[in-house]
Specification:
Number of strands: 0
Low-confidence stretches: none
Strand content: under 5%
Shape: globular
Largest sheet: none
Keywords: Membrane, Transmembrane, Transmembrane helix
Radius of gyration: 20 Å
Helix content: 55-70%
Number of domains: 1
Mean pLDDT: 83
Order of helices and strands: HHHHH
Structural class: mainly alpha
Number of helices: 5
């Protein structure tokens, strides 16, 4: 039987389970925020008829800047918390993939099956995915730079 010697080195440590839970919790929160952001103001007015302002969805205008900050900061934090750049980009873009997928499926009921491939929609959808991938990558790069010091 082959046994690899470590020559007195401690075994490599795995990431704590709480760290993984935090990453997945942030990914779920970002997915929820992205999905809520893709709901149109008209839909919010039908869902919440008593709300005074539908532009901010179910959120009061006073915390709308916080929601916007979270939409940009969470993919960066998710990227920062991951050790591998592949996982950082995957988990940072996953909320956009899910949110856009739900939105596109809903849009095809109203607009038609070719909504996804129309030129202006493809550009917008790819831009969202690129933004989330870039933010996750920036977070991972920040982690890598801090580890080098």
């Amino acid at each position: 039987m082959y046994h690899q010697s470590t020559h007195g080195q401690p075994p490599p440590q795995k990431a704590p389970r709480n760290w993984d839970r935090a990453v997945w919790s942030l990914t779920a929160l970002e997915t929820l925020l992205v999905s809520m952001a893709l709901i149109t103001p008209q839909m919010w007015s039908r869902l919440l008829p008593s709300a005074s302002s539908t532009l901010n969805g179910p959120f009061p205008a006073s915390i709308a800047p916080v929601i916007t900050l979270l939409l940009y900061a969470l993919p960066t934090v998710i990227g920062f918390l991951n050790r591998d750049w592949q996982r950082a980009i995957l988990l940072a873009t996953l909320p956009a993939w899910i949110g856009l997928g739900i939105f596109l499926i809903g849009a095809t009921f109203k607009i038609g099956a070719f909504y996804l491939v129309s030129a202006d929609h493809v550009t917008a959808n790819v831009s969202v995915l690129e933004l989330f991938a870039a933010l996750g990558g920036i977070g991972w790069l920040a982690r890598s730079l801090l580890k080098m010091r």
